[in-house]
Every structure is written in C-alpha cells, then in structure tokens.
Design goal:
The protein is of the alpha+beta class and 125 residues long. Helices cover 28% and strands 22% of the residues. β5 and β6 form a beta hairpin. The protein starts with 19 loop residues before the first helix and ends in an 11-residue tail after the last helix.
Length: 125
C-alpha cells in the first residue's frame, strides 16, 4: 500500500556478479543445515521436513526432534551468525564469516556435540 510507513515500493537490485562466491558458499552451508534436519526429522511427504523457513532476520529450521529434546538452527543474517538453540535454553553459535565450507561444517558439528546433540550426516553435496 502506498503511503504506509515502512512499506517498500520496489525490490532493490541485487546483481549476482558481486556476491557470486558468497552465494555459492551460503548454498553449501544451507545444505549442511538441511542435512542435519534431514538426519533428525521423521519423513514428511514432499520432503517438507527439510525446509528452511524465512524469519525476520534470516532462515530457520524450526524445531528439530532429538530424543526427548528439540533444537533449532537459525541463520541470523543481521547478527552474522548461525545459532543453535536447544529447547532448554542452551545456545551455541558459529560466526557467518569468510571461511571454507569444511571449516563451517566442523564448527557446526563441534557446537552440536558441545550441546549434547551429536548428529551424523552424509557429507557429499
């Protein structure tokens, strides 16, 4: 609606060339998080159990079951961090900073183990 405070009138331009490498890396990081959710979630038709959901600050897995616990993984693009939050309030984070995909993978898996949530995924894209 025109004239509404905070309303966008047009999408900003986002040319791919300047951030192509970031796009490729972020895509692989999201695959890691999606595979974590895939490994822990019961099958849902159309693979809806691996979807990442848009949030006000980025993307989220929504709650993932883990035994008698749940946890959530959040890409917070405003704070430049990946947050792993357990249902009992325990939280860990990984900086979203320039790093190889293998380093990001190791950091995420380390934080999951630190929270008592060891997960094994298939590492091939």
């Amino acid at each position: 609606m025109p004239g509404r405070p905070g309303a966008l009138t047009a999408w900003p331009e986002l040319p791919l060339a300047p951030w192509r490498d970031t796009y490729a890396t972020l895509h692989l990081w999201m695959q890691i998080v999606g595979k974590i959710r895939l490994a822990q979630s019961p099958w849902t038709n159309h693979s809806w159990h691996v979807t990442l959901y848009v949030t006000a600050n980025g993307l989220s897995t929504s709650p993932i079951p883990y035994g008698d616990r749940t946890f959530e993984i959040i890409f917070d693009f405003c704070a430049h961090r990946l947050v792993i939050a357990r249902n009992d309030g325990a939280v860990a984070a990984v900086a979203l900073e320039p790093q190889p995909v293998a380093t990001f993978y190791r950091r995420v898996m380390t934080e999951l183990r630190t929270l008592g949530l060891p997960v094994t995924i298939r590492t091939m894209p």
